[in-house]
Amino acid sequence: MPVFPRLLRSCPRRLRSAALSVLATLATVAALVVGVGAPQAAAASSLPCDVYAAAGTPCVAAHSLVRALYSSYNGSLYQVKRASDGATANIGLLSAGGYANAAAQDSFCSGTTCIITEIYDQSPRHNHLTVEGAGGAGAADVGAPADALPVTVGGHQVYGLEISAGMGYRDNSTSGVAVNGQAEGMYMVTSGTHVNGSCCFDYGNAETNNKDTGNGHMDAINFGTECWFSPCYGQGPWVQADLENGLFQSDAGYSKNTSNTGTGPLPFVTALLKNNGQNHFALKYGNAQNGGLTTTYSGGEPTASGYSPMHQEGAIVLGTGGDNSNGSIGSFFEGVMTSGIPTDAADNAVQADIVSAGYGGPTGSTGTLNAGSEISLRATTSCCTTDYIRHQNNAAVISPVASGSSSLDKNDATWIVRRGLADSSCVSFESRNYPGDFLRHFDYRLYRQPMDGTSQFRSDATFCPQTGKSGTGTSFASYNYPTKYLRHYNSNVYLASNGGSNAWDSSTSWSNDVSWAVSSPWAP
Ligand code: AHR
Predict the structure, then answer these.
(1) How remote is the CA of residue 383 from the centroid of ligand 1, in Å?
(2) Which residues form ligand 1's pocket by a CB distance below 6 Å?
(3) What is the set of domains in the chain, with CATH numbers?
């Protein structure tokens, strides 16, 4: 990490000049006046880029793995490449203006694994994203696994993009994207459950050479728990502006908004940034499943030199920092960039459309081991017949869940059955409230962890169902340790053999402890 940002952090400029203050106020008033005169945001049934076009700020980039962003779009969303023979396939939509045809991916990638090699721009600008090359701060990235983030959107099972460290996408030769102080807006739908404090899970405007070329050369939404300029309030994750050499929550860098404690672990988050390129930027976030947008900052550009005016270069980055700092993780479902600053009314209409798209809705199937079914897994040992496997502090445990339990407890105790990540004749269990996180073993203990695409993870997260060893329910053999089964022991969940060197391999009660009732989900 460069030394310069550290200096900035320890020495923020706290005072804006009176002149800048006046200019910012005038700009705000001007924006409001323009907003009044501009075409009104389209009806909520319009998709995000229809809304922004109607508001006079058309999309110059529209990327999504899960759905169309124009009601007329019927092209490809993304390209996958399979490991077995290196062949590629484009994944499109079920219908114009509709949802992704994930079944086409499942069929193409059947029996092997696929990575996402290109994310197509639905806008007429053709600003497609490919796997990012080496940069000033990171070696060349790799493509994200195509099946790492299964989610339901609008009742359809689709796949989001799950970024682990070392993954990122970019287009360094774009058309129509803001440069050198031009105005732009952008949003992405991401997740508050798959974040870290490393640099820099970004979507937006970046340098064209993958290097840090100085303050103001980026204008991207950042989402994560990295607090670049102290103080930040709460635990995050926060929606921030990566304007290069800093993740900004205000013109001073640090948060001036004590109520901006971040989104917490919301499964689906709308993150929005708009910047007039001269003297004003704004940050907003919302729950992508419900409700409207909250503005966490609206004010002047950073007071440090180089940000006013901005010096955007017009590349588009997804998943890394501008110099390919790629230690960050994150989730991406859809995002757009506009030419010009969208009105708040247009932002609100887009948020309403995102909510109506139905992120994370019920899969439509419950209580079975078929792929896509939501289940809860109940212990059958006599001690514990009201206990279910849940995640708690990232580990798997059993604990009682009942109709009066909290929504959090019910969600933590609900799993979505997925085709086995290592073997499609077996199963994997995705967390209901942490999209892209699966039940996996590590040192024979079970945890909820994000799928990173490695064959180790795939094997550790795959379980093969058999008739319950006690004669009741179902037992789950580990894919890579087939004589070991999912077992509860002292309220923790382990992989256990019937007798062995670990305490949890105890033969006492083993057959009951490894037999589970596949039950209706607590949080369908
Ligand atoms: O601004 C934060 C990060 O600093 C940028 O993304 C990166 O280019 C630099 O390391």
Answers:
(1) 54
(2) 2, 5, 137, 199-200, 212, 218, 242, 244-247, 321-323, 325
(3) 15-35+46-152+160-335+345-357 (2.60.120.200), 374-519 (2.80.10.50)
* 184 carries an active-site annotation: no
- Tell me the C-alpha distance between 153 and 319, whole Å: 22
What does each C-alpha distance from 429 to 139, 362, 474, 480 come to in angstroms? 32, 15, 14, 16
Tokens of 194: 């798959």
| pLDDT value at 374 more than 60 | yes
- pTM of the full structure: 0.90
Q: In whole angstroms, what is the distance from residue 199 CA to residue 247 CA? A: 9
Distance of alpha carbon 156 from alpha carbon 365, whole angstroms: 12
Instruction: For ligand 1, pick from 170, 198, 199 the residue to mutate: most ligand atoms within 8 Å of CB.
Output: 199
Structure tokens at 183: 């105005």
201, 215, 218, best to mutate for ligand 1 pocket (most atoms within 8 Å of CB): 218
Distance CA 67, CA 505 (A): 47
Report the nearest atom of ligand 1 relative to the CA of 323: 8
Q: Quick check: 100 and 27 in contact, CB under 8 A?
A: no
The length of the chain, given as a count of residues: 524
- To the query of whether residue 244 is one of the catalytic residues in this protein, the response is yes
Q: How far does Cα 98 stand from its chain's mean position?
A: 20
Q: Rounded to the nearest whole angstrom, what is the distance from the C-alpha of residue 209 to the centroid of ligand 1?
A: 13
In whole angstroms, how far apart are CA 416 and each of 28, 228, 236, 402? Answer: 46, 36, 26, 19
pLDDT tens digits for range 59-87: 999 999 999 999 999 999 999 999 999 99
Q: Is the pLDDT of residue 37 over 90?
A: no
